[in-house]
Write a structure and sequence with these properties.
By secondary structure, this protein is mainly alpha-helical. Helix content is 16%, strand content 6%. A two-stranded antiparallel sheet has the order 1-2. The longest helix is centred in the middle third of the chain and has 11 residues. The radius of gyration is 14 Å and the shape is globular.
Length: 67
C-alpha cells in the first residue's frame, strides 16, 4: 500500500492480491511469475504461495480512503 500516492486523482494505491492465473500462450514467458518466485525465495511473506493468486486480508484501511 502506498498511503501518499503521486497519482493526481487518488490519495493512495492498494493492491491486496498477488499472483495470477495463466490464461494464454502469452503467459509462457511471464516476467511477473519470475519476480514472484524470486521474492518467494528471498523470504518475502507476501509471496509465500509463489505465483498462486493470494488475497492478503490483512491489508485493510483504518479510515475511508479514495483509491
Amino acid at each position: 500500500m502506498a498511503a501518499n500516492s503521486h497519482i493526481e486523482w487518488t490519495e493512495a494505491t492498494w493492491n491486496p492480491i498477488t499472483g495470477c492465473s495463466k490464461v494464454s500462450a502469452g503467459c509462457k514467458n511471464c516476467y511477473a511469475e519470475r519476480l514472484a518466485l524470486r521474492l518467494q525465495a528471498m523470504g518475502n511473506p507476501r509471496y509465500r504461495n509463489g505465483f498462486m493468486v493470494t488475497l492478503h486480508e490483512d491489508l485493510i484501511w483504518s479510515r475511508s480512503t479514495k483509491i
